[in-house]
Write a structure and sequence with these properties.
Elements (H helix, E strand, L loop, with lengths): L4 H20 L3 H13 L5 H9 L16 H9 L1 H12 L3 H8 L2 H12 L26 H22 L17 H17 L10 H12 L3 H14 L4 H9 L4 H7 L7 H13 L5 H13 L4 H13 L3 H14 L7 H10 L3 H15 L3 H13 L3 H14 L4 H13 L3 H14 L4 H13 L3 H14 L4 H13 L3 H21 L6 H4 L7 H13 L3 H13 L21 H10 L9 H16 L3 H14 L3 H22 L1
Helix pairs in contact: 1-2, 5-6, 5-8, 6-8, 7-9, 8-10, 9-10, 10-11, 11-12, 12-14, 14-15, 14-16, 15-16, 16-17, 17-18, 18-19, 18-20, 19-20, 20-21, 20-22, 21-22, 22-23, 22-24, 23-24, 24-25, 25-26, 26-27, 27-29, 29-30, 30-32, 32-33, 33-34
Length: about 650
């Protein structure tokens, strides 16, 4: 996707305005995002630049620093410039209460909120409107920019005090019940402010969208998601370049169906396109369309750290870990001092067991800023890889002390507590992770594993199903569901779940609604022998011997890649594949197969015993001989060989 010179100039100007406006309101993360995207936009060639600039209206003042287009707002901003500069300086110095008091002193707020108690008119109220407030109770004549700054300072002040009042992470009194006491003040103020604007729309200046964003953000914190979404949608229509507002909307979307439902109601511009791609990645979507969308955006912003991170996370969710690692490595080369999302990079290095790279990353993060949550998570992952689990927990706690909403730290701390056999702490960590983000399938899966360790299979099943609902194409999720059902004695349902696990990774889109027989599944080139063995075992418990035999044969066939026509597989040089090699082969779909595994040996033993029951002594002898060659269950295999040969000799004597 390419842009014309004129479109590139328009986009550049819009991002410049976004960075300035967000910075003026102390929305630092949104301003940083816009500035980084602006920096990734290639310069327009000089020849095209002159032609495009000549077709655009000229101005002595850059649009990013031009006065407000609304004359009423412009007059107010000019009048209160000295106070605004004072308030912004206080905010930058983290003196949030002083910042808010510049425009909204406590005495003024007390009078307004006491008037609100007698006024039933609000966007959420159901009563009839009362008389308009008196002059003493009316809002101060300040600009929307200054009002936003004062109220936003109130919210941040409340968050700061909430963190100060909270107990030690995972301490005995850390119940997560401490609330931001300023939310009620800001909510009441904005309710009345928005109601007054709605009643006197023609007399007031146009809304800029930032106060709607603030109200939506506060409603999200109060768990009023449906009303919050309405105001956040209004905000992106009024000012679509506030990335923080888009993120708040994304956090309210739990399913891709919900994303598709609201997509037509969003402003149709490049911000909506970026939002859709980013939200789809966060919802663990995958496919060529999403990859093409990200590539189109990277065509416009080739060096965007945000978009490269999205591409890396897409590969990570698709389990293409090598591609994801390469993307993060390129990102680190482009932006060596950027710490954002490096916790995900450390997860990838951990799974790939790249200890030298993880050690380098931990050292780099520590040298840049050791008190960033991302740095603490990276260092914690490094200690976890070294099996220093207590040290890892210490760093994950430190990350959470710095930011209690750090999702990676909660989830990874749960993993560490599982390793330390502290199931109570693991469950609490996973629950906190789910509270932060209900779309985190790893936390749901971790809860399922922990309850399974406690042999509380009904609870484990419920959590596994939540994880599978978030990752329906991930065979590992369905395998956990199937195994849990098997332990509960629900073999028929367990078989369905495990068949779905077999089909999930590569055939989910076409086969998720039906589960074929063994013959239908046989068309897949490579499958997990452990899953096949579980299915066969459950069929055996259901006394469906033909299906059990078919899946046992499929299990044995995986040793050579699942391409054999029958279980009559003779191996010249049998060998045992490592777990990593088996996993790689399974993901590759075919090839050299898994080699001999515990699962295939158990399946071969079952087939040998089945052959003995059906008096197929030649097959039983061959399978038992192969078991001896494999070095698995040798004594039992030798006993089967002796019995099979004696039966064959007896049969030959009878024939004579």
């Amino acid at each position: 996707m390419g842009l014309s010179a004129k479109d590139a100039l328009h986009l550049k100007e819009a991002l410049q305005i976004a960075a300035v406006k967000c910075s003026e309101r102390c929305l630092y993360q949104s301003a940083k995002w816009a500035a980084e995207l602006l920096d990734a936009l290639p310069d327009v060639p000089a020849a095209e630049l002159g032609q495009a600039a000549s077709s655009m209206p000229g101005s002595q003042v850059h649009p990013a620093f031009a006065p407000n287009a609304d004359p009423l707002e412009a007059a107010l901003e000019a009048k209160e410039l000295n106070k605004y500069l004072l308030a912004k300086t206080f905010f930058d110095c983290r003196e949030f209460d002083r910042c808010a008091a510049v425009f909204l002193p406590e005495s003024l707020l007390a009078g307004l909120l006491s008037a609100k108690a007698n006024d039933t008119t609000s966007p959420r109220g159901k009563g009839k409107a009362t008389a308009a407030p008196s002059a003493e109770q009316s809002f101060p004549a300040i600009s929307q920019k200054s009002l936003f700054l004062a109220l936003y300072a109130k919210v941040i002040s409340g968050e700061k005090r909430k963190d100060e009042d909270s107990e030690m992470i995972m301490g005995p009194q850390d119940l997560g019940s401490v609330v931001n006491k300023q939310l009620l003040v800001v909510t009441r103020f904005l309710e009345r402010w928005l109601a007054e604007r709605k009643a006197e729309d023609c007399k007031l200046s146009a809304s800029q969208g930032f106060l709607e964003y603030l109200y939506g953000m506060v409603l999200v914190k109060e768990k009023n998601d449906s009303v919050a979404l309405d105001y956040l949608m209004q905000s992106v229509h009024l000012f679509p370049w506030n990335w923080g507002c888009w993120l708040e909307i994304a956090n309210l979307i739990a399913r891709v169906e919900q994303l598709n439902k609201i997509a037509p109601h969003l402003p149709q511009n490049i911000m909506s396109f970026i939002f859709h791609a980013n939200t789809a990645v966060n919802l663990y979507q995958q496919g060529q369309d999403l990859a093409a969308s990200l590539n189109d955006l990277l065509g416009i912003f080739p060096t965007s750290s945000f978009l490269i991170t999205c591409k890396a996370l897409l590969n990570y969710h698709m389990k293409d870990l090598l591609a994801a690692e390469q993307d993060f490595s390129n990102l680190l080369a482009l932006h060596p001092h950027r710490l954002d999302s490096l916790d995900h990079y450390s997860n990838i290095l951990y799974v790939l067991n790249l200890r030298p790279k993880l050690a380098f990353l931990a050292h780099l993060c520590s040298s840049i800023d050791k008190f960033r949550p991302e740095s603490c998570v990276v260092i914690g992952n490094y200690y976890s890889l070294l099996s220093f689990h207590e040290k890892a927990v210490q760093y994950f706690r430190r990350a959470l002390t710095l930011d209690r909403s750090c999702l990676s730290a909660w989830t990874l701390m749960g993993h560490e507590y599982v390793e330390l056999k502290n199931t109570h702490a693991a469950i609490e960590s996973y629950r906190r992770a789910v509270d932060v983000n209900r779309r985190d399938y790893r936390a749901w899966y971790g809860l399922g594993q922990t309850y399974e360790v406690l042999e509380m299979h009904a609870y484990a099943l419920w959590y596994y199903k939540k994880a599978a609902g978030l990752r329906p194409w991930d065979g590992k999720m369905w395998q956990a569901v199937g195994s849990c059902l098997q332990k509960m004695g629900r073999d028929r349902d367990g078989i369905k779940a495990l068949k779905r696990a077999l089909l999930a990774d590569s055939y989910y889109d076409s086969t998720c609604s039906s589960f074929g027989s063994a013959g239908a599944v046989d068309r897949m080139a490579q499958m997990d022998p452990e899953v096949l063995l579980q299915i066969a075992t459950m069929y055996d418990r259901l006394d469906e011997e033909d299906e059990a035999k078919a899946y046992m044969e499929l299990c044995v066939a995986q040793e050579d890649g699942g391409l054999g026509d029958s279980v009559a597989i003779h191996r010249d040089s049998p060998g045992v594949a490592s777990d990593g090699e088996a996993e790689a082969t399974l993901r590759g779909g075919g090839g050299e197969g898994t080699g001999v595994t515990v699962a295939t040996s158990k399946a071969r033993m079952w087939l040998a015993k089945n052959a003995m029951r059906t008096e197929d002594y030649v097959t039983a002898n061959r399978l038992a001989t192969e078991l001896c060659q494999d070095g698995v269950e040798v004594e039992e295999a030798k006993a089967l060989i002796r019995e099979a040969r004696s039966r064959m000799e007896l049969a030959n004597m009878t024939d004579r």
